[in-house]
Every structure is written in structure tokens, then in C-alpha cells.
Amino acid sequence: MQIFCDFDGTITNRDSIVFLTEEFGKGEAFRLEVLDDIKKGRMTVFEAIERELATVRVGWKEAVTSLREAVHVDPTFAGFVDWCKADGWPLTVLSSGMEPVVGLFVRDFNIPFYAHPVKVSQEGWIYRRNPHHDKKTILKSAKEKGEIVFIGDGTSDVAAIQYTDVLFAKQGQFLAEYCRAEGIPFYPFGDFQDIQGTLEGVLGVETTKAPKSPSMSG
Ligand SMILES: [Mg+2]
Asked: pLDDT above 70 covers what percent of the chain?
């Protein structure tokens, strides 16, 4: 069993691209227009990210300060990482977002992550999709090696569905709504303890007692 996990809004409490667009870019109304374009199939997720980030006018240092204030890693994620490591389930973060931003939050967990390059500029951030890092590309080749568990929340996670054996979709978010509407089976989750519980219980995954991480005991 290989576990793949989205970043924005799945590991974190809010989406970094949404945050940057609303805080330093063209704002919420513009973002909702773009979201509508994705939902109606007029724009791909990658085109949407590219367009949103092109409106973001802030330098890296200021962006980092704001991101650290506004975006937080789910406090149950660290325990989930420990559980995966203890039980030998390979866990990989797959993001359609930006490498430097994902790295800010994920690097300390020492797990592999894939995202896309961005050129930060006061005149608008330039997002460059790396097709080798697409969810689709990575999951397609991973599927040849065995079963796939995917954890996600948003529009970019729809691309993962066809390669996924066990799908987790965050409660109340786009992916869960989409799956419900399309009749695609999924496990809803609120946090990573829910996911671990489901994997242990419903799927009968044998588990060792992973040490509790500090962030889980608080
Ligand atoms: Mg997401």
C-alpha cells in the first residue's frame, strides 16, 4: 500500500494559492470566477493556478511571513507521518502547488514531496508546471507497483481518482462533493487521525504502536 497525499487544504488548514491570491493578488471575486471556470470545464486546474499566481504581487520574504501566519499544518499530520513510517507505508506528498511553498511546511517531516516550480516576482508570480510532477503522471507509474491510497480535498485531486484504490476526501470540500455527485466511493475525513483509524479499522491494516509525536499529545 502506497499512500499519496495532497498538500494545500489537505495537510494544511487553508490553501496557500487561495491565500496568496486573496491577500496579494486579484482577490476573492476573481478566484471564484476562476473556480467556476474549472467547474464548468473551461479551464484546467493548472491554467487556473497559473492565472491566479500571475496576479500575486509580493516578494518571497513577505510571502513567507504571511504564509506562516495564515497557513498551518494539521496538528494530526505529524502523528500520521510517524504511523506511516513505523508501519512502513511509503507516504508521498503530491501537490499541484509550488515547490518552495510546499517545502516550507513539509520539509521537516522528511518525506518525499512533488510540486511545481515558481518564479517569485513583485510583478506577478510565474508558475511553471512540471509535467513529471503531475499527480496523474506519478500515480500512473506508482499504480504499477501496487495499491494506492490517496488523500485530498480539491479540484486538482480529481485527476488522482482513476488511479486510486482507496480514496479519502476531506469533509465539506470540493473533492467530497464531486465524488458524491459522480457516485465515486470515498472515505470522508476531518483530520489524519480519522484516516489512520479508517485504514486500521475498515481496511484491517495491521498496525504497530507508533510513538505519539509531541504535536499529538498537546
Ligand atoms: Mg488541495
From this structure: 93
